Amino acid sequence: MIKDKLNHRFDTLLEAIKAVEAEGYVTAFFMKMHGLEDPNTKKIYAAQDIVNVEYIRIEAPFSDPDEEIILYLIIAKDKVKGWISDSYGIYSDSKLTNLFSKIEKLNA
User: Fold this and answer.
1) 82 CB burial (10 A radius; 0-12, 13-18, 19+)
2) Nearby residues of 74 by Cβ (< 8 Å), 6 or more positions away
3) Spatial separation of the C-alpha atoms in residues 11 and 4, rounded to whole Å
4) CA 66, chain centre distance (Å)
5) pTM
6) Do 96 and 35 touch, CB atoms closer than 8 A?
7) Percent of residues in the chain assigned helix, strand, coil, to nearest 5
8) What integer is the mean pLDDT of 75-95?
9) 3-state class of 82 per DSSP?
10) pLDDT higher for 82 or 87?
């Protein structure tokens, strides 16, 4: 399931990352061809390996809408918790967008 964890308390991506890491989302995933990679173990998580996704849209005050960022909070079936960030809108990573679309369909 993909849920909006809308939170306007963050002005920067760094503030948001520090906060979610304190909540246990410590793995900084990388997008690879077939899914998200845990850089510590090199394990690839495909859509079917992800059980929960929440996201935080970071909208800095007085910033250009093109500078908005989404921070995705991810929980895998094996209980690994982590995050990955992406641009919002036309600058977003299409591979990441497609992966989250698959996750949403699998968990609908």
Assistant:
1) buried
2) 25, 29, 36, 45, 50, 52, 53, 81, 82, 83, 84
3) 17
4) 18
5) 0.85
6) no
7) 30, 35, 35
8) 91
9) strand
10) 82
**How far is 80 from 91, CA to CA, in rounded Å?**
28
Q: Which residues pair with 31 in a beta bridge?
A: 36
Quickly count: other Cβ atoms within 10 Å of residue 46's Cβ.
Answer: 15
State the pLDDT confidence band at 71, using cuts at 50, 70 and 90: very high
97 class by beta-carbon count within 10 Å (0-12 exposed, 13-18 middle, 19+ buried): exposed
d(CA 9, CA 21): 16
User: Measured in whole angstroms, how far is the alpha carbon of residue 96 from the centre of its chain?
Assistant: 9
pLDDT at 1: 43
Spans of all domains in the chain = 2-106
- Token code pair at residue 35: 């899914």
DSSP-derived secondary structure letter, 81: E
